[in-house]
Write the structure tokens for this entry.
Amino acid sequence: MKQVLFYVFTLIFLGITCKTPKASSTPKVATSQATQIAQGIVGEVTEITGNQMPMVGAPMPTPKPLKTTVYIYDSTHISKVQQIGTSPLFSMVNTRLVQKLDTNESGQFSAELPAGTYSVFVLKGGAFFANQFDEKNNIGLCRVEVGKQTRLQITVNTDANY
């Protein structure tokens, strides 16, 4: 009996110690890009498409990096844009464009900016995408503080079904 228990515990111990860790499903912003700026926005744009309904036994789809253009405007209220229907897409933004930049192949971007509050939009199919609003209906707000990097994760979900 002692030999059997010894072998069982040995197998369990080996099984636990030899297990390889799973890769994180949450993408991270590259640290080398984050160190390029002292103050501003460091972020990543991803896209999810298709069926997002949870299914028993099926893993949730993971967002894919999106190579696109990021537009940073002065803080923008819903009254300063032309919205396409009720979607999170906008055909025109009527506030001052502060910066326009492209993401890399991994969807990452960084923008050096003065302290302030900005609205961040992503180009999606010829329209501006933003799906975050504050309680006063300001769109895609991002606050940059003196001497700090603000991390931003944008997930484009216009082609996803919930």
In short: The two ends are 54 Å apart (CA to CA). The CA atoms of residues 26 and 62 lie 8 Å apart. Helices lie at 2-17, 31-34. Residues 13-35 have pLDDT under 50 and may be disordered.
